[in-house]
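User: Structure please.
Assistant: Input sequence and predicted structure:
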Amino acid sequence: MIEQTELVISKWDYQPPQNPVDDPEEKLTSYITLDVMKLRAARKKGIACRFTCEFIFEKRTLLEYVAANTYVIDLPDVIDRNELQTMIQNTYTIFKEKFDLRKLGTVLQDKTLLPFDETRYDLDPVLALLNE
């Protein structure tokens, strides 16, 4: 059995820009990173999925946003690639939903997060950690 915990926002550091964001397409950049950490207890195992997003305007960080949740899994359960991808995608979906609510009232209110490209990540080491 897999249990998902609530997404916890550990950082939402918004700094309004010093200059107007007239042409944001040329000066506004963003990126997203994913960190996956192994968790283990006496009868359970799991992973924590943490996404970080940063928006930069004119070489200055406007927003740093970090949030994570965990998946608690019964020790004998074996996790396959599809299940792991679903866990990561679920975390990203909630991460994006929280962003969409919190961005209102900021200069980022018309922006969206980059789509999560799971092909950029090698999941084999994570699967090995979960199933050892």
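The radius of gyration is 17 Å.
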